[in-house]
Amino acid sequence: MEHIDILDRRILEIITRNARIPFKDVAEECGVSRAAIHQRVARLMEEGVITGSGYTVSAKALGYNTCTYVGIKLERAAIYKEVAKRLLEFPEIVECHFTTGQYSILIKLYTFDNEHLMELLNTCVLKIEGITSTEALISLGEGFSRNIAIMPPRAKRNAAENHTTRRLRQPEHLYDGELGM
To answer: How far apart are CA 68 and CA 65, in angstroms?
Structure first.
């Protein structure tokens, strides 16, 4: 998005590292006023750049020991919205994506164990009209999870030009000197 400038990107990089950081600390780190940070964050929220904030809860701590990705085949791809509405009824399903390839929908879900998973798939998901089959991929462990990198526009162009072999530097290295820091 071209309307996101270097200061916006710096703010995003800071608050995605620590969502609880006081705006006064963000302002100090960016060398601008607290009011400027408030205005920028409010605008970024209004424009849908920032889509949420809060705490991340460990599924395992709540007893959900099995993380599974399920590819769903539909009778007709055109019914994906209706199927997604039905899938939303199940609190174990935390993500739903419309996809290309062999599946029309890919979902991510958490269950207490494999028995719970099998029950959810057989007695709930597969009963939804229009679903013809599923393929479950059980996660054996999470390698990492992170937010998308907040890169300056020039890094975005460089990444597109050198996408096959270039390793992107961490965002904080790309900001040196651009905001007088």
So the answer is: 10
100 found inside a domain: yes
168 and 102 both lie in a single domain: no
Q: Which has the closest alpha carbon to 68: 138, 126, 120?
A: 138
pLDDT in tens, 5-56: 999 999 999 999 898 999 999 999 999 999 999 999 999 999 999 998 888 8
74 and 89 within one domain:
yes
Cβ burial of 161 (10 Å; 0-12, 13-18, 19+) is: exposed
pTM of the shown model: 0.74
SS3 86: helix
Domain-located, residue 181: no
